[in-house]
Amino acid sequence: MIARITGMLEQIDDGEALIALPGGVAHQVLVPAYLARRLAENASGATVTLHTLEYFESQNQGASFIPRLIGFASIAERSFFELLTSVKGLGNKRALRAMAGEPGLIARAIHDRDTRALQRLPEIGPKLAELIVHELKNKVEPY
Fold first, then answer.
1. What pLDDT is attached to residue 57?
2. Percent of the chain residues topping a pLDDT of 70
3. Is the dihedral of CA 125, 126, 129, 134 positive or negative?
4. Chain segment 96-116, per-residue pLDDT in tens
5. pLDDT digits (tens, 9 = 90+) for 39-62
6. Which end of the chain is more exposed for a tag (fewer CB within 10 A), N or C?
7. Is 79 buried (19+), middle (13-18) or exposed (0-12) by CB count in 10 A?
8. CA distances from 42 to 14, 103, 120, 142 (A)
9. In angstroms, how far is the first alpha carbon of the chain from the final one?
């Protein structure tokens, strides 16, 4: 598994960062919206380190699989994402879209049982917000 990637940020566009490594290889790394905004503030060409989660995305009912990397600014942010995706109905793609806010703010909303704050995130409706709070309320610490 690729756990971390460090390289030059070539491009950030629509939730994807293109990270160039020495030797000419570049990796496409999916990033949540909060991190895309942070990275966009960096000038292209900056060296960045992303803590990654690797998974395989199924195409056509499992006929083929495409490897994907999801990047985070810290190990804690990656761990929070893994905890969030443990909730039934929140797979990698949906959770990525939902993480428009900083992980600390989302964790605070879960800890405080603030389902209205969760519902302001993309992909999170009333029922899913309730489920997230129910399943994670004792597992998150506000940070």
1. 83
2. 97
3. negative
4. 999 999 999 999 999 999 999
5. 988 767 889 999 999 988 877 776
6. N
7. middle
8. 16, 20, 27, 27
9. 27
Residue 46's φ and ψ, nearest 5 degrees, are: -75, 145
For residues 55 and 68, the answer to whether their CB atoms sit within 8 Å is: yes
Alpha-carbon Rg for the chain in angstroms: 16
Q: Is the pLDDT of residue 119 over 90?
A: yes
- Strand 47-59, strand 4-13: pairing: antiparallel
Distance of CA 120 to the CA centre of its chain: 17
Amino acid at 114: D
Contact 30, 96 (CB under 8 A): yes
Residue 90, φ and ψ in degrees, nearest 5: -115, 85
Q: Give the residue from 34, 35, 141 showing the smallest Cα distance to 19.
A: 35
Find out whether 111 and 42 touch, Cβ atoms under 8 Å.
Answer: no
Residue with tokens 């443990």: 86
